[in-house]
Specification:
The complex is a heterodimer of chains A (about 600) and B (about 280).
Chain A lengths: L27 H6 L4 H31 L9 H37 L7 H23 L27 H30 L12 H32 L10 E2 L2 E2 L7 H34 L7 H14 L17 H11 L1 H15 L8 H24 L1 H7 L3 H31 L5 H28 L16 H34 L66
Antiparallel strand pairs in A: 1-2
Chain B lengths: L1 H19 L12 H31 L15 H30 L6 E8 L2 E6 L27 H4 L2 E3 L4 E4 L4 E7 L4 E4 L6 E4 L5 E5 L5 E7 L11 E7 L1 H9 L2 E2 H23 L1
Parallel strand pairs in B: 1-5, 4-10
Antiparallel strand pairs in B: 1-2, 2-3, 3-11, 5-8, 6-7, 6-9, 9-10
Chain lengths: ~600, ~280
Amino acid sequence: MVDVTPHGADLIPPAEVGEMELYHPHSWWTKYVFSQDAKVIAIQYSGTALAIGLVALVLSWLMRLQLGFPGTFDFITPEAYYQFMTMHGMIMVIYLLTALFLGGFGNYLIPLMVGARDMVFPYVNMLSYWIYLLAVLVLVASFFAPGGPTGAGWTLYPPQAILSGTPGGTGPGIILMLVSLILFIIGFTMGGLNYVVTVLQGRTRGMTLMRLPLTVWGIFTATVMALLAFPALFVACVMMLFDRAIGSSFFMPAIVEMGEQSPHNGGSPIMFQHLFWFFGHPEVYIVALPAFGIVSDLISTHARKNIFGYRMMVWAIVGIGALSFVVWAHHMYVSGMHPYFGFFFATTTLIIAVPTAIKVYNWVLTLWRGDIHLTIPMLFALAFIVTFVNGGLTGLFLGNVVVDVPLSDTMFVVAHFHMVMGVAPIMVVFGAVYHWYPKMTGRMLNEWMGRFHFWVTFIGAYLIFFPMHYVGLVGVPRRYPELGDTAFIPPSVHTLNEFITVAALTVGFAQLVFLFNLFWSIRHGKEAGDNPWRATTLEWQTAGTPPPHGNFGKELPVVYRWAYDYSVPGAAEDFIAQNDPGPATQGGPA
Amino acid sequence: MAIALVLVLVVVGSVLFHALSPWWWTPIASNWGYIDSTLVATFWITGAVFSAVVLFMAYCVYRFRHKEGQKAAYEPESRKLESWLTLVTAVGVAAMLAPGLYVWKQFVTVPKDATEVEVVAQQWQWSYRLPGADGKLGTSNARLINADNPLGINPEDPNGQDDVVVEAADLHLPIDKPVKMLLRSIDVLHDFYVPEFRAKMDMVPGMVTYFWFTPTRTGTFEVLCAELCGTGHGFMRGIVMVDTEQDYTSWLQQQSTFAQLTGPAKVGALADQAKAVAAME
């Protein structure tokens, strides 16, 4: 399908949003701090997410030091290890990836790509960021609370999350964690409603849903999912907060804690797991779908070729989004839930592999007969496909209920989810930053530092997580700060652990080069111009770079074609912008 | 250009690593060889797909990398190709799922002749209970737990009197007899995990979970907790010894029953407590 309005067809003239309706900032404070401009909010979100992400990165180094060289670092006690582990997981999944993809890329790209002047509710959008920042600060505060942050694992499973055997369980740690999550969800909901309404109502003339760039489809679908999934986490957090603070028993059965009968009675720990994963599994796709969308656009732009099978790609995104709500209990095969659930959830889980595989085929088929420019965004896109395919395929082990039984709760699982929802989406984040940084700042990121960053990150991350699967296959459980003398674990596993630690520290170092590049290139990067990648989508057709408040000039662009008119036969250039009325496309299947 | 080479190396390296790696699962000691076979079949299918996709990418990058004057093809979609790929993928997925579900059916169907063995977990140790001569475990209740009755066995239940209690010590199992492991926790989530048995299951306070297996090899096997249970999680270890019938019987004879452990004097006190708990509930 090539969705192009024939040249000369009568288009309804743009229903211009009056320039006066936009609230323009009047002072430095309202322009750069309490800003209602989605682009500024995007950068605030991204900056905060990267800052707290840096904390998570350092925590991962500390964990790897302990796992590679157990007993060497006295300050890494089991308590500390579990606190590092919990905070690392929580920060990466929620406060970094979710915030960066939706709050960061969503805010920056949605209005620009759909041809809107801003989000539809700019004031609520601003509040969204400030509540997110508050959530992050509450999270950070738990590091300084008596007893430290919670060490319950990012899954926060009760009863242990609120008992004395777990770090932060009876101190303020767990309370601050739950409050921070509740704040995050409130803040996210404000932003999320904005993204959805802007995509549905804020599109410019001619921008039909089936002309949206896949980036917007990915972020849009992920946001709808997040609006449906986060409430489950919200209620779980509120109930656990009650169990912990006022002694209710939502998740707490009658137990004996350290020899003492507890006053709790009648609660269900498994109920928490259902609520958590009803959120938690869609969460995987809340991170993955924006990555799917963005990487589609990176591949298409840098291979100078339309994305292969656009309609199928859209339906695959929507299908994956819908299916991801009926697979949650595959995280619970050995939780003690009714074993017959296994049949249902294994089937739904493996079905989701089909639309996911279609997406992979269409990415590689887009490369076929392309004109592949090996730019840094393209390199990261390729690295994404490799790591995503690898991580997706190991998901077939864990989704297939009986194969999961020996592998669950081992390092195999850790390797799997890091590959598929850690490394793969982060490859897209990097690709996207190298791709859109020129639009955000007007300058290119330094090429030499970028290539160094790419090679170390891609090869290093693969060397960390590919061998880790085999540590799990041996049977090494996850969440063990040290293995001690265990008969079935050969000494070679310890050697492998040392190797993985060295690889992890090396990859970590490369990220500092990336951060340095972000700052260095603001002043010293090459001038980018308006459209350095010669891309078709609307954000590259703005009046000026970085785009001013209001994004487009006096008139909003009118869209005549889909987002993928690259290398159109007969066209003068190898791309035709979406707002370019002609020439009409020739050829191609109708 | 380098990237095409690296992509090929990723495939070659991964396959070689898999083939030459000394890191493989522990020799199996239970009847769940089917699980291992399904896992191996999954390795073959996924390995082939991974190699095919990444090698195809490497070829594309090499063959279609930008050169002066090159222009990409314009082919928005191909119904036929997309349908075929969907179909082939669906068949491949079904080929993995079908045996998986077939084995799962066995996994969740406990044989009628399986002996019940109870595992009781607490922070951070393992205890066990075996049905006595009557072959039945007595009822239990977390509210009955105290220093004299660490597993919370109901003293009023006659079935429980001859139950063999193994507190914080090794468990022995006879070879080639199917066992149904009844799993109970008195505080937080735990998971009874012996790598050689392949099977594992979480233990959830407030309910009894289970799995079954048949030990097929004598020896000493380490029990690890596989569900995060607090700061002692990594150190929550135990031992299961799979014995010949003869060794098992002689071990069993040295164990004490609930009645023996509590003695007549204590039984009275425990029974009073049981009544109080029953009245409360």
